[in-house]
Amino acid sequence: MSSTLKSRIQDDMKAAMRGGEKLRLGTIRMLLAGIKQREVDERRELSDADVLQLIEKSIKQRREAAAQFASGGRADLEGKELEEARVLEAYLPAQLGEAEISALLEETLRATGAASAKDMGKVMNALRPQVQGRADMARVSALVKARLAG
């Protein structure tokens, strides 16, 4: 098993099992099932970057589901989704602050020579590997859009 993140997740599953943490255990099992499914589909072992991408997607799905439950008046299910998102967030690297994101953005703009909104895709493609898992991509996208708009 080459993925250290995957190993950590499996160790956490065993700890949650021993500790009787039902919600945490269920969330970690769903994550591991998603990792295994993708490995089978792609016929390769996922790297830490791939696992991080999967974790981010799972967090986003849970937040969206929580918003749906909130608008439907189901606070119980909303709470469960948000709690699962918190369990998954523990696997993300330390989040970047606003100043750090802005500095990376300015550096990327200089490197790509981007000047207008037409260059947004080029900037995001260059910026993504640097901020993946360390910042909310929707927030990064909004910052890029605002900066390129002038």
* Secondary structure: number of strands: 0
CATH superfamily of the largest domain: Uncharacterised protein YqeY/AIM41, N-terminal domain
Strand content: under 5%
Q: How many domains?
A: 2
Assembly form of the protein? single chain
Topology diagram in text:
Elements: H1 4-19, H2 22-42, H3 48-71, H4 75-89, H5 98-112, H6 120-131, H7 137-149
Helix pairs in contact: 1-2, 2-4, 3-4, 5-6, 6-7
What does this 3D model show about the protein?
19% of the residues are buried. It is built from seven helices and no strands. It is mainly α. It has two domains: 4-89, Hypothetical Protein Yqey, Chain: A, domain1 (Orthogonal Bundle); 98-149, Arc Repressor Mutant, subunit A, CATH 1.10.10. It is globular and about 55 Å long. The protein has helices spanning 4-19, 22-42, 48-71, 75-89, 98-112, 120-131, 137-149. Helix 2 (22-42) crosses helix 4 (75-89). The model has no long low-confidence stretch (mean pLDDT 91). 77% of the residues lie in helices and 0% in strands.
Provide a compact summary of the structure.
The chain has 150 residues and is mostly helical. The protein folds into 2 domains: 4-89, Hypothetical Protein Yqey, Chain: A, domain1 (Orthogonal Bundle); 98-149, Arc Repressor Mutant, subunit A. The chain has 7 helices and no strands.
Descriptive labels:
7 helices, mainly alpha, 150 residues, Arc Repressor Mutant, subunit A, Hypothetical Protein Yqey, Chain: A, domain1
